[in-house]
Amino acid sequence: MQIGGPSGGCLTTEHLDVGLDFDSVKKYGAIVGSGGLVVMDEHTCMVEVARFFMSFTQRESCGKCVPCREGTKRMLEILERIVEGNGKLSDLDELQEIAEMVKSMALCGLGKSAPLPVLSTLKTFRDEYVEHIVDKKCRAKTCQALRKYRINEELCKGCGKCAKSCPVGAITGKRRESYHIDPELCIKCDTCRDNCAFEAIYVEA
Amino acid sequence: MGTMTIDGRKVEFTNEKNVLSVIRKAGINLPTLCYHSEVSTFGACRLCTVEDDRGRTFASCSEEPRDGMVIYTNTGRIKKYRRLIVELLLAAHCRDCTTCVKNGECVLQGLAARMNISTVRFENTRELRPLDTSSPALVRDPNKCILCGDCVRACEEIQGVGALGFAFRGTDAMVMPAFNKPIAETDCVNCGQCRVYCPTGAISIKTNMDEVWDALADPDTRVVAQVAPAVRVAVGDAFGLPAGRSVMGKIVTMLHRLGFDEVYDTTFSADLTIMEETKEFLERVGQGKNLPLLTSCCPAWVKFVHDQYPEFIPNISTCRSPQEMFSAVIKEHFKGYEKNQGKKTVVVSIMPCTAKKMEILRPDSVNNGERNTDVVLTTTELIRMIRTSGIDFAELPPESSDMPFGLGSGGGVIFGVTGGVTEAVLRRLVDKHDKESLDAIAQCGVRGEEGIKEFTVDYKGIPINVCVVSGLANARTVMERVKNGEANYQIIEVMACRQGCIMGGGQPVKPGARTKEERTRGLYNADSVMVIKKADENPTIAALYEGLLKGKEHELLHNTIPW
Ligand code: SF4
Ligand code: SF4
Ligand code: SF4
Ligand code: SF4
Ligand code: SF4
Ligand code: SF4
Ligand code: FES
After folding, report:
1. Chain B residues with beta carbon closer than 8 angstroms to that of A107
2. How close A27 gets to chain B, by Cα (Å)?
3. Do A19 and A46 fall into the same domain?
């Protein structure tokens, strides 16, 4: 659950009983802020949520003070790297370091609260960050770069429809045997999955 | 008034404007990149942030001191944050320090060293921008700008010009003239104050050192130097001598050693200016025409009038500045073969001033189709040339300037500080030269560091209202009053730089009260030990009027071409 607008924090089911007032939510790294409340389920990637909000605040930064101008830029860079599957574990420490600094040092409210989504997701959904970095896996299957198209050999009847529909020729195989997707060539357009009559094609994340 | 606790020590404060000043008074030099006591508080670098007893962090430059405050300036996390801020700045910075004009004097570089930053973890993704070299005086390098806004506030608040401003937002933010026009096409007066306040190499002096080295190396060229009054009090401290002390004698020796053929003293032509300007002033008072007389020694001010108050152009004194009078006289002096022996004369003018680089290019700085001053070197460039030479400046014996243009009066020396021109003119106007009369002039209100000084003196029964101004923002205030008929002066002296040329845009930085005080004292001391106090008592001046200048006063000493 994301609360307080783009600079708010993220809470989980275990916070369901927390009172919705200024002081209570603050204790958990969130704010009442705009009063907005976004409820998300397991189909939303929390790293992507952090990236999305950071791209918003980074765009809104006026550029006057150094922590916010330079800090939000670097936080966004790191988050982008992670959702692209290029993150390193040390990125998490860097992210934490910059976020804490910006929160304490920025000039105005925008900068001071910009790191909140990062700080709260880092705290509550750290395992999702680690999965993105180490396992190159997005459990919500939303991070484009981490999605892999696969063909389930058991279900594949070897009809070859997918190979014909693939715009980049990433699918090869012999008729009546299981087809295969070359992950290097695949651009994740989803066409093959749409076209397979046997639902043999799935997304692995 | 009150007491606060800083890092566990009780510290009294009185009228300090902000917590930062109290902290500094307590002997803790917090790092800052956007604070100058002379301009408004900006609060952008956040380096001055401190923590209070409740763990709240705030920028100390932007917080008023309150009785009973408890603050910590160097907690673990604040130290870490400050270091990260500097690292982030460096990450968006070109960092070619070894070839940077600011190398060794750069505040950002200094902070990086002070915080022991040994790596920068982030890649520089800032797009490389072209340099603005349009100005004859300054170079702007946007790649080195850290957006502290110091130049913007100096230009706006001290100089009242407002040639620079912020454009765009976020990481696209930039400091530039409106519409990113070349600075030469704006109302910039080339005073160089933006450069004085800039902590990095983003605004620097356009240097002409190579031209001078080339001329010095050419056997067929006679290189003649003139050294302005304010230069002599701003060189010593670069070589370990006491700040503000006049080292003119050493400068003369040094220039000779560097290969200058003649070294003259601009105080000599300051005396010429006093003679001419006094004459002009008395004529105008007699005719009641074009008053108030506006002084013309400061080219930044002259341009300011042209840009902002064109209706007052006729009020500007027609006298050339001391620099231009001198160069015209020198060129005239070496004109005939007898004097020049077939050698070309190059006049190098050593000035505290960046605007002088613009002045020499003005159409009225020309005689016989030739520019009178060939090169202007600022004090800062002189210091660099001395360093390049490797000669031990501090140990040099003093020499006196070359004749016949090496002698100046005390009145000429104090041209370098605000009120100096007026004081020298007043000395000329009184017939007496005993200590008492001179002291009376010094105490009439002409000295002192206020930006606007007004007083009335009596000249043969006529009351003369004088206004002495430094800083162009102050000049704007005064000119508005004059324009609206709220003030009635007969003479207005304006120096563009606050406190006059001693704080000129070509002087070594740093700005601030201490530097002002030291350099001012240095010049008044230099005056007080001089035997000749008044321009009209300078025997070489009288000789010049009888000789070289006869019939040519107007041609050589006055601006005849409007621009
Ligand atoms: S914190 Fe505020 S002042 Fe600083 S850059 Fe961000 S928006 Fe601008
Ligand atoms: S997702 Fe698109 S690119 Fe990838 S294999 Fe299927 S059809 Fe080809
Ligand atoms: S401005 Fe300072 S930090 Fe930047 S390159 Fe020049 S010396 Fe180095
Ligand atoms: S040189 Fe003077 S007028 Fe020009 S931009 Fe700098 S401060 Fe402003
Ligand atoms: S040019 Fe210099 S003074 Fe101006 S904002 Fe940039 S770094 Fe600061
Ligand atoms: S006050 Fe002096 S240093 Fe400053 S611009 Fe004028 S002449 Fe130059
Ligand atoms: S000096 Fe206080 S914010 Fe820059």
Report:
1. 43-44, 46, 59
2. 15
3. yes
Query: Rounded to a whole number, what is the distance in Å from the CA of A98 to chain B's nearest CA?
Result: 8
Q: A55: CA distance to ligand 1 center in Å?
A: 15
Contact partners, residue B143, CB within 8 Å, separation at least 6: B93, B94, B126, B128, B129, B202
Q: Chain A partners of B63 at a C-beta cutoff of 8 Å?
A: none
Q: To the nearest whole angstrom, how far is the Cα of A92 from the nearest Cα of chain B?
A: 13
Range name among B292-296, B311-315, B333-337 with the lowest pLDDT average: B333-337
B43 touches chain A (CB under 8 A): yes
Which pLDDT belongs to residue A13?
Answer: 84
Per-residue pLDDT band for B148 (boundaries 50, 70, 90) equals very high
**pTM for the whole thing?**
0.92
Q: Which CATH number is associated with domain B89-205?
A: 3.30.70.20
Nearest-ligand number for the alpha carbon of B498: 6
B92 lines ligand 5 (CB under 6 A): no
Query: Which among B77, B122, B168 is the nearest to A74, CB-wise?
Result: B122
In this structure, are A83 and A124 located in the same domain?
A: yes
CA distances in angstroms from A38 to A66, A142, B14, B276, listed in the order given: 30, 17, 51, 80
A101 and A168 in a common domain: no
- Given pLDDT bands bounded at 50, 70 and 90, which one contains residue A163? very high
| End-to-end Cα distance, chain A | 22
Select from A69, A73, A98, A113 the residue to mutate for testing ligand 1; criterion: most ligand atoms less than 8 Å from CB: A69
Q: Find the CATH number of the domain harbouring A184.
A: 3.30.70.20
Identify the band that residue B163 occupies on the pLDDT scale cut at 50, 70 and 90: very high
Supply the CATH number for residue A117's domain.
1.20.1440.230
Substitution target from B33, B52, B56, B81 for chain A, most A beta carbons within 10 A? B81
Q: What is the mean pLDDT of chain B?
A: 94
Q: What is the mean pLDDT of chain A?
A: 91
Least confident of A107-111, B25-29, B312-316, B341-345: B341-345
| Centre of ligand 4 from the C-alpha of residue B195, in Å | 8
Given the structure tokens 């005086």, which residue do they identify?
A: B137
Give the three-state DSSP class for B349.
strand
> Based on the structure, what is the number of domains in chain A?
2
Question: A92 with A122, same domain?
Answer: yes
Kindly state whether residues A50 and A131 are assigned to the same domain. yes
Q: Is the CB of B141 under 6 A from ligand 5?
A: no
pLDDT digits (tens, 9 = 90+) for B464-481: 999 999 999 999 999 999
- Read off the pLDDT of each residue in B192-213 and give the average, rounded to a whole number: 97
pLDDT of residue B99: 96
Chain A residues close to B59, C-beta within 8 Å: 107
Residue type at B64 in one-letter notation: E
- As annotated, the residues of chain B forming the CATH 3.40.50.1780 domain(s) are 210-557
User: Residue range B274-278: average pLDDT?
Assistant: 93
Chain B CB contacts of A94 under 8 Å are 121
List pLDDT tens digits, range B538-555: 899 999 999 998 989 999
CATH-assigned architecture of domain B2-74: Roll (3.10)
**Is residue A72 in some structural domain?**
yes
Q: Please state, in angstroms and rounded to a whole number, the distance separating the CA atoms of residues B130 and B116.
A: 31
Which ligand 4 atom sits nearest the alpha carbon of residue B187? 3
Q: Which of B500, B548, B555, B493 is nearest to B281 (CA)?
A: B493
Q: Is the CB of B109 under 6 A from ligand 3?
A: yes
Is the same domain home to A113 and A161?
no
Omega of the bond prior to B404 within 30 degrees of 0, cis?
yes
For the ranges A189-193, B163-167, B468-472, the lowest mean pLDDT is seen at: A189-193
Looking at the fold, whether A108 and A18 belong to one and the same domain comes out as: yes
- What proportion of chain B, given as a percentage, has pLDDT over 70? 100
> Which residues have C-beta atoms less than 6 Å from ligand 2?
A 149, 165-166, 168, 170-171, 181, 186-192
User: What confidence category does residue A205 fall into, taking pLDDT thresholds of 50, 70 and 90?
Assistant: low
Rounded Cα gap, residues A12 and B170, in angstroms = 32
| B210-557 fold | Rossmann fold (3.40.50)
